[in-house]
Amino acid sequence: MLKKEIESKKQIKFDKSFIIPEDYEYNNVLIKNISDLKVKGELNYQSSIKGLQVQAIILATIEAIDARDGSIIVLENQEFEWDDEYFFENVNDDQHNLILGEEFSILDYAIDQILLNIPMNLTNNYGKISLVGKNFKLMTEEEYEQEQENEIDPRWDKLNDFKFKK
């Protein structure tokens, strides 16, 4: 979408499906393919700050390499919330998203949002902990705190060595 079109319309609602070219560069070594990409939301241009606010939902299927074992995993119907601001003019800090050029590509910026929301070490079994070792147990934070409260300070054990006369 061209900058002039965005500036003239001010508010643009969209509901688009995209076909991503097979040779698309994702700039993430773990991502093999993104398919079934659907983006639904709206663009709001704010002329006072020359900024573009995007509020949308991104749905996609992601084919990636598991960071632990190198197998291919497919994450179907992943949903990402896209709520961000972009600026056509240079802003003198690193906290603003700049639109390079005169065109805002919903496809490219939606893919960027997906990539920003994917963990660096993407794995299919991220919630599983490998239980290896002896004399330990997996505890919740509350169980750990309760155990710490009930633990006796080892300095008190020296009192057992004293024999008191009656």
Provide a descriptive summary of the structure in words.
The chain contains 3 helices and 5 strands; from the N terminus they run H-E-E-E-E-E-H-H. With 166 residues, the chain is of the alpha+beta class. It has a domain of 114 residues. It has a 5-stranded mixed sheet with strand order 1-2-3-4-5. Strand 2 and strand 3 form a beta hairpin. The termini are far apart. The mean pLDDT is 83.
List the helices and strands and how they pair.
Elements: H1 3-9, E1 11-18, E2 31-46, E3 51-65, E4 72-87, E5 97-98, H2 106-116, H3 141-150
Parallel strand pairs: 4-5
Antiparallel strand pairs: 1-2, 2-3, 3-4
Quick structural summary:
The chain is α+β, with helices and mostly antiparallel strands and 166 residues long.
